[in-house]
Amino acid sequence: MTKYTHRNGLSRRTLLKTGVATAATTLAAPMVWAQSNIVLRQAGTGVSAFNDIAEKVQGDLGITLEMTALDSDSVTQRVATQPDSFDIADIEYWICKKVWPTGNMQAMDTSRIANYDKIAGTFRSGKLTPTSEIAQGTAPHTVGFTTGANGKDFVQEESGWMTLIPTIYNADTLGIRPDLINRPIRNWSELLNPEFKGKASILDISSIGIMDMAMVVESMGEYKYPDKGNMTKAEIDLTLGVFTEAKKNGQFRAFWKSFDESVNLMASGEVVIQSMWSPAITAVRAQGIPCIYQPLEEGYRSWGGGMGLAASLSGAKLDAAYDYINWYLSGWAGGFLMRQGYYSAVPETSKNFMSEDEWGFWYEGKESKGEIVSPQGAKLEGPGAVRDGGSFIERMGAVACWNSVMDENQYMVRKWNEFIAA
Amino acid sequence: MQKSKGNNALTGWLMVSPLALVLFIFLVLPIVMIAVVSFWQTTAFSIVPAFQLENYEFLFGSPVTYTVFINTFKYAILTWIFTVLIGFTVAYYLAFHIRSLTWQVVLFLLCTIPFLTSNIIRMISWIPFLGRNGIANSTLISWGLIDEPVEWLLFSDFSVVLAFVHIYTLFMVVPIFNTMMRIDKGIIEAARDGGASGSQILSNIIIPLTKPGIMIGTIFVVTLVMGDFFTVRIMSGSQSANVGRLISNDISLLQYPSASATAIILLLTVLIVIAVLLRFVDIRKEL
Hints:
The structure holds two protein chains of two kinds.
Chain A: H1 2-8, H2 12-17, H3 19-28, E1 39-45, H4 51-61, E2 64-70, H5 72-81, E3 88-92, H6 93-99, E4 105-106, E5 108-109, E6 145-146, E7 154-155, E8 161-162, E9 165-172, E10 174-176, H7 178-181, E11 200-203, H8 206-220, H9 233-248, E12 252-256, H10 259-267, E13 273-275, H11 278-286, E14 292-294, E15 300-310, H12 315-329, H13 332-338, E16 343-344, H14 347-351, H15 356-362, E17 372-373, E18 379-381, H16 392-397, E19 399-402, H17 409-421
Parallel strand pairs in A: 1-2, 1-3, 11-12, 11-13, 15-19
Antiparallel strand pairs in A: 3-15, 4-15, 5-8, 6-7, 9-15, 9-16, 10-13, 10-14, 17-18
Helix pairs in contact in A: 5-6, 8-9, 9-17, 10-11
Chain B: H1 2-37, E1 41-42, E2 47-48, H2 54-61, H3 63-97, H4 101-112, H5 119-124, H6 126-130, H7 135-142, H8 157-181, H9 185-193, H10 198-227, H11 230-235, H12 243-252, H13 256-280, H14 283-286
Antiparallel strand pairs in B: 1-2
């Protein structure tokens, strides 16, 4: 800490006093941590744990990033029960709702976040554009702010203390194999269409799966939820009842829990329609197998991920963590992740790290002019391709619900367990 | 005299204490802890010490619990039948048909070679083999035996039991082979001289004398299958559940008290099963 303060010629107090604008310029060029051997342990869901990012951080900041990729449930468990096993938790907002009250994480001072003002509206006011409606479920802004550095509850306005700094997010829908289905798919209800008996799949992560189910139940016309993101016990019974019946009738080939399982199910042709995540579609396509992330009339089920700080972080490590987060929002990482099909929390800065054609394809929903390649260099699309679902505003504007933790979570989890065992 | 007697008792206590201590710390305490937690309460993110029977009430009140326990027994029994048949045959061949000790050892080691790889890898390699477009289906189609891919090969009870048998047969072969090797060849010769047929020798001499081995193998296989959740999850495509999966689902959803309650019930069930098995054969006497 002392070392850091001396070098910058600023103590944290003066830094705060000088205000956001100055802080932004100071922090935009963070010092290099090479001599200090700072190691940050990042535990997170596999979606954003890329070695490329760790290498780039090492090169740019001199911080060694040790990434652990776990499935959503394991990461929740780790943050809730092993507070000393991580420095940075890279989790989703619904996980934040579960683990924040444990006090194992500390809030972030937004005045130390250089690009705070550029973070997409979805994560601050909840509104993508001033006119957008807020979708049902655990919308990120509802669990994005807390009362103070040690706050344990959530506040609905921009309080200056953020629980998670948003990193990536996306609008999810069903993935399909167009070559094996051979007809247009327009609604969520197709997941339970008997036509796909034994060839459908859904993910076995309750907080996400229940939302996919709700989209299907609504689309089938079985029930219209007042709030999908906060179901009553009766609604939970109804939703899982519909799916238990389908399961018993042999609708599903398998359920998947991790990203690679969903890729294998789709690529091998075991499943032709299923819940899926965007990079999984990319992975199937990279094998030369046609796979579409099908936009549906009822809209998307969305999720957002962000990084939070462990409560135990202090001194130089805490400063390094802020540097890392500022680096993350400064563009390179966003550009990298947007080329995977995710959206960056600060799209503006990512633009500088993408070619015009890439930006047009991934963000603006324009037709590609040249080849679109993955960050690893594999060809994804040729010229003339358009992203499934169109532009950022079209896709994120059509979000119907967010992954959620409900008031009746306990009950839902038990019922979910029964569904899997049924 | 008095003194040496006291010393003996002391030596006895000292000799037994390291093991007792290790077992107490690493076996008894955790189980006691699990039993205690099973009466606690959970909220979405924390566990509250309490004494309430809600976890057990929910467990016994849910029809799913019974289906899952029946499933667990079904997998255990099916796996047991196949592993006993295969294990006994393999052990019998090794012990009585292979004459030289060197070859017995070589062939026995050969049996264990596949088990040097991770059993998760051995299990997962079944998936592309049994899949809808897998090797098994495409071979059967090219032979003209079936017209359409057979669906029940993968993500079914069949594939679960297949993987269990594949993984756990060795646990049956080893103890059975071991007891067979200790059968005095003289007894078999005497029986043959007395005019006993092959099947009489098998049913009157070899099977009764191999019982302890079969029993030890049975305990291994039954307890392993009853506690295994990973095989069931992978091979059934997450669609079936045994008790182990119920527990692992609870744990992954942070429902520790409810997981503990299920674990306690599973532990009691397994102990009862073993107690019943031990009624049939007195392992300590036979060894």
